[in-house]
Amino acid sequence: MRPPTLLVIEDEDRMRRLLELVLKPEGYELLLARTGEDGLRLLRETEGLDLIVTDLQLGAVSGLDVLQAAKQTRPDVPVLIITGYGTVKSAVEAMKKGAYDYISKPVDNEELKILIARALQVRRLSQDNQALRAGLHERFSFDRIVSRSPQMAEVKRLAMEMARTDVTVLITGESGTGKELLARAIHYASARAAGPLVAVNCAGIPESLLESELFGYEKGAFTDAKKSKAGRFQLADRGTLFLDEIGEMSPTAQAKLLRVLEDHLVEPLGGLRGIKVDIRVICATHQALPDLVRNGRFREDLYYRLSGCPLHLPPLRERTGDIRALLEAFLEAAARERGTRLRNVSPEALAVLQRYHWPGNVRELHNAVEWLTISCKDDEIRPEHLPANLRGSGATTRRDLPALLSFGLSVEELEKAMLQEALQKTDGNVSEASRLLKITRNTLRYRMAKHHLP
Questions:
Q1: Which residues pair with 7 in a beta bridge?
Q2: Please, where in the chain does CATH 1.10.8.60 lie?
Q3: Cα–Cα distance between 171 and 84 in angstroms, integer?
Q4: Domain limits, CATH 1.10.10, in the chain
Q5: Which fold would CATH assign to domain 408-450?
Q6: What CATH number has the domain spanning 159-312?
Q7: With bands split at pLDDT 50, 70 and 90, how would you rate the model's confidence at 405?
């Protein structure tokens, strides 16, 4: 690892020599300039410059000129100003123009070392942050959404167009179709990519806590509110808030969300005034919001506010042409991360996978590939390697489903029977029953109340 490179610009020979004696033993690579002109030349010619230390008063080309040139050509390189008596005001002005800090003459050697070490640490953190953001941008780009079907090509085209704007987006689709992945792609392709992306699963937070989690609260708003807490809307300021399972929001939270979307004002619990926020909201749900509106469980005005720019992710069974591409991508990732040797799929095995109904969509396919990379010792997937539920009776298509109408039951009677069976199998455990039925706890409670089930 190379030592940090420092450009030191000082027109006084004695001071320049002192700085060299102080900084050289710290392991820094020093570039010394005796004039502002020399400093600008080294600034242009030197690659890998980590920090600039410059006197404020240098002659024709001042330390402020060096600062301005550095901010234009090397905006990530911190500049430390050395100022003499009577020029502190100018040094403060330099900080307003982007200098990292200043130190007054006579220079305290230990203070100088601490300031330089701190500036270099801040720069390293900034570089790490930039690298992390670049990695996230690559990881969640639209190119990483694997697909070959025309349906998904159209979804990605529309999403890329929406990413160029600040519109509110509503993503719909069954569980496991990749709604959060699409939301992240929109964020990292937008002008807000440098800001935070805050994700909230509305179904994963108890209804009693959801409002305070989203909008925050002031000290004393309720018994345990010992101090104020910012909500997720405030944490997402200058970025994107992703609200998953938006259909699980309480009526009160829905009303507050509507105001945020219309006025960009957040009202914390117990607060006397709204707080302005600069955010973009992306919502997602696996439920049919129009049905929830008709049942009185979702505000009609909020639905129309959200549904202006909808994106629907089709289920995997409706885009079986994507299965091979997804399978190959998952196998490649497993080989890269864990060194697995499973790389190919036989035509017969692929046919089985394309006939399967995939109720869990892409997530279920990914889990199946994970199982195959552990259990299969060959380099090609054949039908006998597939899990039993994929190649056996569980691998049903819509054509293979039993003729439910032959039972003579109405939709309401069939739904009630399913609820009763799930509750009976789980001894009345609502959480377990909701998992069996693949619905959220709140949805199950609503349907239990609708059918007058205890």
A1: 31, 52
A2: 316-398
A3: 60
A4: 408-450
A5: Arc Repressor Mutant, subunit A (1.10.10)
A6: 3.40.50.300
A7: low
Alpha-carbon Rg for the chain, nearest whole angstrom, is 30
Terminal-to-terminal C-alpha distance of the chain: 67
Helix 251-263 vs helix 207-215: crossing angle, to nearest 10: 20
CA pair distance 8, 186, nearest whole angstrom: 44
Residues 203-230: pLDDT tens digits? Answer: 888 877 888 888 888 876 676 777 788 8
Count of C-beta atoms within a 10 Å radius of residue 271: 15
DSSP state of 2: P
Most confident option among 336-340, 378-382, 446-450: 378-382
pLDDT tens-digit map of 35-59: 999 999 999 998 889 999 999 888 8
Would you say residue 406 has pLDDT above 60? no
CATH among 1.10.10.10, 4.10.520.10, 1.10.8.60, 1.20.190.20 for 316-398? 1.10.8.60
Residue 170: which of 160, 161, 159 has the closest Cα? 159
Q: How far is CA 87 from the centre of its chain?
A: 45
Chain-centre distance for alpha carbon 440: 23
Helix axes 63-73, 36-45, angle to 10 degrees: 10
